[in-house]
Amino acid sequence: MSWSYVKSGTQGQVLVCLHGMGGNANAFAPQLKGVDSLSQHMQVWSLNLPGYGSSAPLPVMDWDCLVAGLKQFLDQHQLHKVYLLGHSFGGMLAQAFAAQHPSYLAGLILYSTSAAFGSNDGAFQQRFIDSRLTPLDEGQSMAQLAPGLIKPLLSKACAPHARQKAIECMEQVPSHTYRQAIKCISVFDYRQNLPHLKLPTLLLTGAEDTMASAAMMKRLASKIAWSKLCVLPNAGHLANVEQPQLFNQQVKVFIGLLSTTT
After folding, report:
1. 103, 159, 254, 261: most buried, per Cβ within 10 A?
2. Residue ranges of domains in the chain
3. What 3-state DSSP class applies to 231?
4. 220 vs 201: CA distance, rounded Å
5. pTM
6. What pLDDT is attached to residue 120?
7. Is 5-255 CATH 3.40.50.1820?
8. Whole-angstrom Cα Rg for the chain
9. How far apart are CA 75 and CA 176, in angstroms?
10. What are 16-72's pLDDT values in tens digits?
11. Cα→Cα distances 21→79, 93, 115, Å
């Protein structure tokens, strides 16, 4: 199993980024490139999860396989005591990895994610699956679906260029991989593990995020001992693209590269 990646920065702490269900490694472009990027201060590794970018797909995607693949990647590149940043689907993988391999991590950044998906009776999960998969079953392509899928994820004032970058990432997701990720996310439940997380943890979300709301992230933070919640203004579910300077500043403060008064 070999995962492709984009890397920027040569010195300092290591930050490993895991994208969401509709993203890829380039979803973290504002953290990888530019004068205000995180790579100016640390090594940033943005991974393509299986089936995304040029990473080979899995025959069956499940959380155990994803955790094993991430461990293999870190071992292959001799990356240990890293800061692990996971967005949405990637944030679920970050939680699953932290549960099994905490010794690999210096800290955890959970960005617009959840410890469980949906309701106890499964009704929400089934509606979510149907709403995402039915258009594909009817023959629509990811390129056709991308604008409509991205629109509710963004804040009302999202800049056009950020909206377009998000759409481009979604367009590039293979439909087979998207199907796998939807089914994988629908069974995720790591709520019982939250009290056992003993890592410094930063939780980030956008004030206008309707998928991982500030209230939901606050409840998540309350279950994690060493955690801090930061809600970014004028941002939705894709805050790292919508408000990259604020996002990067909070990450730098958490990792210790800036004082809290910066």
Report:
1. 254
2. 5-255
3. strand
4. 11
5. 0.95
6. 59
7. yes
8. 17
9. 28
10. 999 999 999 999 999 999 989 999 999 999 999 999 999 999 999 999 999 999 999
11. 24, 11, 15
